[in-house]
Amino acid sequence: MTTTPAPVIETSPPSAPADAGSGAATLPQWRLMARRFRKNRLAVASAIVLVVLYACAILAPFLSPNSYDQQDADLKNASPTSITWSGGPAICSRQQQLDTETFSYKYRSDCGQSVPLRFFGEGYHYKLFGLIPTNRHLVTVDKPNTLLLWGADSAGRDVFARSMQGARVSLTIGLLGVAVGTFLGATVGTISGYFRGAVDTVLQRFIELLTSLPTLPLWLALAAILPQDMSVTGRYFLITLILSLVGWAGLARQIRGKVMSYAASDYVAAARIAGSSSARIVFRHLIPNASSHIVATAMLAVPATIISETSLSFLGVGMLPPAVSWGVLLSDAQSVSTVQQYPWLLIPAALVVIAVICFQLIGDGLRDAVDPYG
Fold this sequence. Notes:
Elements: H1 29-39, H2 41-58, H3 60-63, E1 83-85, E2 89-99, E3 104-116, E4 118-128, E5 132-140, H4 159-195, H5 197-212, H6 215-224, H7 232-263, H8 266-273, H9 278-289, H10 291-315, H11 326-330, H12 336-341, H13 347-369
Antiparallel strand pairs: 1-2, 2-3, 4-5
Pfam families: BPD_transp_1, OppC_N
Subcellular location: Cell membrane; Membrane
Organism: Kribbella pratensis
């Protein structure tokens, strides 16, 4: 009697979950935010533009063929230098002429007498990064010729060199002012949302009083009481402090709302049961959980601070000469007739617009990246 063998049933090992090998479940939060941020092409492009602006601010003396405070009476309100090609990049020589009708200087370019550009040539002495003494510049020309990439102002100073030098003040004062305001807003908002009760009431009434004051007149009043003979460094830090005194109130209210929701969560209750102090709960649990929102809000606040500094300096109560900022440079272009005759004096305004738009686009990208429902 023959028996038929039982059919063999092949079994395969259980398959792993779809996301077990992908690593998506083990990625830290900051990497997920970075992935979302990189998908926003406008934000990434804006970040690149800002990196270029800050690099230009750091390397301002190297990029500028002339010193930002060098005056030349023969180049008052001179137009940008004409670039030509004569066996290589060169500039056209220029001649100054007095217009007897308007009693203003006119400049005539003569490209028949060109002057070659010299890359990494020698010029005025400066300290690279504030440490390394050198006299090398990216582009120079032989004396007595002068290279004016963006023209000159009413005192014959290089607008390009002054714009690069002004970027150091205008771009850093925005970051520093927002850093101070963010620290105040995050601290006050967290304390108000965590302790509640009388502490919350007092802080919220103070914030309401602060936000009810008109911002620009308040800044003008605070800036106007500063001594006119202050040093450039001292005025820089005081203007930064003035700009940060009002900007933190809105962030404090937003953080208060988030902290109130966090304070009722289970991990905060567990921390209390474990004997954690209020300071430890605030700085180890509540503020880190709200950090993504704080970063996004702070980035959106930077352009407002830059515009505020530019406005104060433009009105003559912010940074004052001999300090150089984009607002100080724009104060030379207050009249319509000046802008019509010398439009290159508005180039710093274009830099302000570019920086503000880039910060806003980056802020939008960060806000979408930190959104847990994004």
